[in-house]
Specification:
Layout (H helix, E strand, L loop, with lengths): L1 H7 L17 H8 L1 H34 L5 H13 L2 H14 L6 H24 L4 H9 L4 H30 L2 H6 L7 H8 L6 H28 L1
Helix pairs in contact: 2-11, 3-6, 3-8, 3-10, 4-6, 6-8, 7-8
């Protein structure tokens, strides 16, 4: 019902999301002319894309390494990986801000992307390790017995087997990144505000139906991607 109301009031003539006064498409046209909101949206997508790629690569390699090998400090590292998941986001945001201040790193795109990678990696590790729980190591051993190098075995055998886990973890990391408010609030610079931060700042003065229109478009795109993914899955089955 809240989503249905959000979509409905994106077509409302009134600027207030309280009273229905008539049907219009003006808010979609005004959205296309609102450079501040569109810039924030582009920033969110750019940060989410870069941080997702980096977090997926780091998290996948970490998950495979921790699954395969035993080494000193593995238990401590395993515990540290879960810290960003269990600690409150406000603590994570303050700690990252303190770190960047100590290192004298100016707040901006770099700090924003670094922070998003930091809290995304543990989720990737958890999902990929769960996928590897039922992994048959004998497949890798057979590939190496047939002459495959360790890298060829990883790329052509291991990765295809754990690909569903990698894809699921990357989608989770992308969602967490594009949706984050609290951590981004502490580490974003004046010129690197994301869409959630922009909407959060607009709440003080009133959110116009332009945001409803943007949310509706994002929902349509998301549903479209879900339908495509479901059709691909059904076709494979």
């Amino acid at each position: 019902m809240p989503i249905a109301i959000l979509i409905l009031y994106s077509f409302n003539q009134s600027k207030l999301n309280a009273v229905w006064t008539g049907f219009t498409l003006d808010w979609y046209l005004k959205l296309m002319q609102n450079s501040d909101v569109l810039d924030a949206m582009r920033t969110s997508l750019l940060v989410a894309l870069i941080s997702t790629i980096a977090a997926t690569m780091i998290g996948t390699l970490a998950a495979v390494g921790m699954y395969r090998y035993q080494f000193r400090g593995k238990t401590a590292l395993d515990a540290m990986l879960y810290l960003p998941i269990v600690i409150p986001e406000i603590v994570m945001g303050i700690s990252l801000l303190a770190l960047f201040a100590q290192l004298q790193v100016p707040l901006g795109y770099f700090t924003l992307i670094a922070a998003h990678i930091t809290f995304s990696v543990p989720f990737v590790v958890v999902v990929v390790r769960a996928r590897m729980a039922g992994f048959d190591r004998s497949i890798e051993e057979a590939a190496m017995d047939l002459g495959a190098t360790p890298w060829q075995t990883f790329v052509k055998v291991t990765v295809p087997v754990i690909a569903p886990g990698i894809l699921a973890s990357s989608l989770l990391a992308f969602t967490l990144s594009i949706d984050d408010v609290i951590i981004s609030f502490f580490v974003a610079g004046p010129s690197s505000a994301t869409l959630p931060l922009k909407i959060f700042s607009m709440v003080k003065f009133g959110v116009t139906p332009e945001i409803n229109a943007l949310s509706t478009l994002m929902l349509i795109v998301t549903l479209f991607l879900v339908i495509i993914a479901e059709r691909i899955r059904m076709r494979k089955n």
